[in-house]
Design goal:
The complex is a heterodimer of chains A (about 90) and B (about 400). Chain A is built from 4 helices and no strands. In chain A, about 20% of the residues are buried. Chain A has about 90 residues and is mainly alpha-helical. Chain A has a single domain, classed as ACP-like (Non-ribosomal Peptide Synthetase Peptidyl Carrier Protein, Chain A, Orthogonal Bundle). In chain B, helix 13 links the parallel strand 10 and strand 11. Chain B folds into 2 domains: about 250 residues, Thiolase/Chalcone synthase (Peroxisomal Thiolase, Chain A, domain 1, 3-Layer(aba) Sandwich), CATH 3.40.47.10; about 150 residues, 3-Layer(aba) Sandwich (Peroxisomal Thiolase, Chain A, domain 1). Chain B contains 15 helices and 16 strands. In chain B, the strands form 3 sheets. In chain B, strands 1, 2, 5, 6, 7, 8, 9, 10, 11, 13, 15 and 16 form a 12-stranded mixed β-sheet that branches. Chain B has a two-stranded antiparallel ribbon with strand order 3-4. In chain B, strands 12-14 form a two-stranded antiparallel sheet. With about 400 residues, chain B is α/β, with parallel strands linked by helices. Classes of the chains: A mainly alpha (about 90), B alpha/beta (about 400). The interface between A and B is small, with 12 and 11 residues.
């Protein structure tokens, strides 16, 4: 179960930046098929990670891990791992 | 050779969105020029030139689906809106737009300056990994308008991007005309877009080509052919035409707005800053030859005349040499400034409406012609009722590019 703050912040990326209806952004939704994102959106996802969490996709260290991301939940899990590993302080809600 | 017809247009001008707003401003002789503070507010730079013709109304970027919008700077959004409106005006079905015979030849002076500024800021300040987002390159690339419009509309035909500063859209229409008459395509969207960045104004300022003596009375400048002219005023806008072969237009019973019957373009290698009279004369004569008509058949010349000191003189002398003192002429720069890459197409759309109404619009702010233009037949300040069967549209650009189109009312 992802930290609610992280899930909320990730959901905000999909809703605010990618302009997706909130109801579509479910944990099991696949990024490419269900949410219709593409490879360019992945670039922007990385930029949004930087701006909201302070880190980006680390292609060198996490290549396999990033490739395995299929769903919103997979993505949240990755973000949570990085937040813990990098000891990132999340904004208080 | 195919006949090439104009069957639709779209316009975003300093007057606002839509050709009707363009016509309302032009035929009312209303100036769209404002003080630069009304455009940029406190960010207005301290250039000599403090006047501009920004958009009084901008398209809502949210009208473009995000998938396409993410790759568009203001430049491409303006281009998109002009093309969507042109397609609607031409009453084209979706099936025609996506056919291999439907192409695009669109133009701009450069890629989006705003996106370029954002990218360089990110790069130089080393923020966000040096890149603002995935769409940066697609906004900056010089074919941003052509590619983005083609993607957003699902075009599948030939796609060219023309870039020749102030002659851009006239050259794009000319290239489209050549392709259609030679049978390379059945329909082509063509035109140009200009988003206008403060840097554009600065460049004209540095080149001493921008007006600065009327900063406190913006509506009095630019002043094409006038003795008191002191330079041009940069403006923003976008325009598009739907051109199609006669066979295509007849097949779908299209409304025909005019026919392009001649086109010529050349370059004057003697100066980067302005075209010589001789090169303009050569271009005008080549366009008339291409149309197979004599100068006496031209009822109106829509001049480029940006109100620079040297440019207006060269053009005035060239027009007098080719047409003599008889032909009525005017420039629309006094109304909406110089919209650069969009100027040719917006002024052509304005001229089409003059032909339709039988009513010529004068050169706004022309009060007393300069000596070199005093012998010409300027449209009087109140306008004039004139039957126009055939007109010439001039465009010239930094770099020495000249482009001239000859447009006729359609007859069987």
């Amino acid at each position: 179960m992802t930290d609610a703050r992280i899930y909320g912040m990730v959901k905000d990326i999909f809703v605010d930046f990618f302009e997706l209806e909130e109801s579509r952004v479910r944990p099991e939704a696949t990024l490419f098929e269900d949410l219709e994102l593409d490879s360019l959106d992945m670039v922007d996802l990385s930029v949004e990670l930087q701006s909201r969490f302070g880190f980006t996709f680390d292609r060198a260290a996490d290549e396999g891990r990033i490739r395995a991301i299929r769903t919103v939940q997979n993505f949240c899990d990755y973000v949570e791992e990085k937040v813990k590993a990098l000891n990132i302080r999340l904004p208080e809600t | 050779m195919n006949r090439v017809l104009i069957t639709g247009y779209g316009a975003v001008s300093p007057y606002g969105i839509g050709a009707e707003k363009l016509f309302a401003g032009l035929f009312a002789n209303r100036s769209a020029v404002v003080n630069i503070r009304d455009w940029l507010g406190a960010r207005a730079p301290a250039f000599h030139c403090q006047v501009a013709a920004p958009l009084q109304e901008s398209p809502d970027p949210r009208d473009v689906p995000r998938t396409f919008r993410r790759n568009m700077g203001p430049l491409a959004i303006l281009a998109y809106r002009s093309c969507v409106d042109a397609i609607a005006h031409a009453a084209l079905p979706e099936s025609a737009v996506g056919s291999p015979g439907f192409g695009i030849v669109y133009s701009s002076t450069s890629g989006s300056a705003e996106a370029l500024e954002e990218s360089f800021r990110a790069y130089l300040e080393d923020t966000l990994g040096g890149v603002p987002n995935s769409g940066s390159f697609f906004k900056i690339m010089s074919h941003t308008c052509t590619a983005n419009v083609a993607h957003a509309l699902g075009l599948r035909g030939i796609a060219y991007s023309v870039s020749s500063a102030c002659a851009s859209s006239t050259q794009s229409i000319g290239l489209a005309y050549d392709m259609l008459r030679n049978g390379a395509q059945e329909m082509i969207l063509c035109g140009g877009s200009e988003e206008m960045h403060p840097l554009t104004v600065l460049i004209f300022d540095v080149l001493q080509a921008a007006s600065w003596k009327f900063n406190d009375s913006p509506s009095r400048t630019p002043r094409p052919f006038d003795a008191l002219r002191d330079g041009t005023v940069c403006g923003a806008g976008a325009g598009a035409l739907v051109l199609e072969t006669e066979a295509s237009a007849r097949r779908r019973n299209a409304r025909i707005l005019g026919e392009i019957v001649g086109y010529a373009t050349n370059i004057d290698p003697t100066s980067m800053a302005q075209s010589s009279k001789e090169s303009i004369v050569a271009c005008l004569r080549a366009a008339l030859d291409d149309a197979g008509i004599g100068p006496e058949e031209i009822d109106y010349v829509n001049a480029h005349a940006t109100a620079t000191l040297a440019g207006d003189v060269s053009e005035a002398q060239a027009i007098e040499e080719v047409f003599g003192p008889r032909v009525p002429l005017s420039s629309l720069k006094g109304h909406m400034g110089h919209t650069l890459a969009a100027a040719g197409v917006l002024e052509l759309v304005g001229s089409l409406e003059m032909m339709r109404r039988g009513r010529l619009v004068p050169s706004l702010n022309l009060e007393s012609p300069c000596p070199e233009a005093a012998g010409l037949n300027h449209v009087p300040a109140s306008g004039s009722d004139t039957r126009v069967r055939c007109f010439v549209k001039n465009s010239f650009a930094f770099g020495g590019i000249n482009a001239v189109l000859v447009v006729k009312e359609f007859t069987e």
